[in-house]
Amino acid sequence: MNGFERRAEEIKLRIKRTVLEMLRETEPKKLRVADIAARASVSQVTIYNYFGSKEALLRETFQDGVVRATDEFEAIIGDQLTMKEAVQHILVADREVYRSFPPDFVKTMVLEDQECAAFIETLYRDRVIPLVVRFIEEGKARGEITDKVSTESIMAYIQFMKEKMAPMLDLLEKSGDLDRFLGDMIHLFFYGISGKE
Predict the structure, then answer these.
(1) In a structure prediction context, what are the per-residue pLDDT tens digits for the chain, which is 197 residues long?
(2) Of the candidates 93, 106, 119, which has an alpha carbon nearest to the alpha carbon of residue 23?
């Protein structure tokens, strides 16, 4: 990468970081390119040159975060941690994703942006599902996940949770305690309501 390309990437990254900061204060639909440009100390023309539109900027910002989270999940699985350690790392990573992306922004990207939804679906099918299957199989091999429940049943449960993302995001937003809510959801997934660990 030459100096011009490196500088362009630095500017794009600064713009996307600015978007993330502004999303903590403003709904995605209320963000304006003029406000993003002013806060990122770039011109509106620069944003349009690099991204084409506000929607494309939001999409790329979200997609970068999702890919980064998937990369982190893959790294956690590759670390050969115990199931409990891996879940703790995943929980921390999930919290960071939700801190970076307010629930309203996630809903907009996943449910209203068809291009982004297609990207997420492809990433989920091609990378996330194989990683989760590997995670489950390795957990079973180490005796940390019961053999009484098939991998297919666990995957079906995860698919069900994925399909209920919109109401989950609403509950998350209303909970008022992001960390506790995410912790409770992870606990319920792994230990059920009996709480047996």
Answers:
(1) 788 889 999 999 999 999 999 988 888 889 999 999 999 999 999 999 999 999 999 999 999 988 988 898 888 888 877 777 777 777 667 666 666 787 778 888 888 889 998 998 999 899 988 988 998 898 888 888 888 889 999 888 878 876 776 676 667 667 777 677 777 777 777 777 766 65
(2) 106
Q: List Cβ neighbours of 47 (8 Å cut-off, separation of 6 or more).
A: 15, 33, 36, 37, 40, 54, 57
Cβ-based neighbour number of residue 20 at 10 Å: 17
| CATH number among 2.60.40, 1.10.3470, 1.10.357, 2.30.30, domain 55-191 | 1.10.357
Please report the DSSP string for 147-163 in residue order: TTS-HHHHHHHHHHHHH
Distance in angstroms (rounded) separating the CA atoms of residues 14 and 183 = 31
Instruction: State how far Cα 74 lies from the chain centre.
Output: 13
CB 170, CB 196: distance < 8 Å: no
Query: For residue 19, with 0-12 CB atoms within 10 Å meaning exposed, 13-18 middle and 19 or more buried, which class applies?
Result: buried
Q: Which CATH number fits domain 1-52: 1.10.10, 1.10.150, 1.10.3470, 1.10.1740?
A: 1.10.10
Among 155, 174, 161, 182, smallest CA distance to 95 is for: 182
